[in-house]
Amino acid sequence: MKFMKSATQVAAALGFSVLLSGVSYASPAGSITVTNPGPLGSFSINTAAFDGTSGQIEKLTFDLSGTHCIDGGSCILGESLVFGGSGGGTFAYDPEANGTSSLFGAVGSTVFGFDFTGFDPLNVFTFSWDPDVASNGGYGAIVAELAGTVITASVRFSPSEVFTYSGTMGIVGHDVAANLVPVPEPETYAMLLAGLGILGFAGYRRKQATAV
Question: What is the pTM of this model?
Answer without folding.
Answer: 0.74
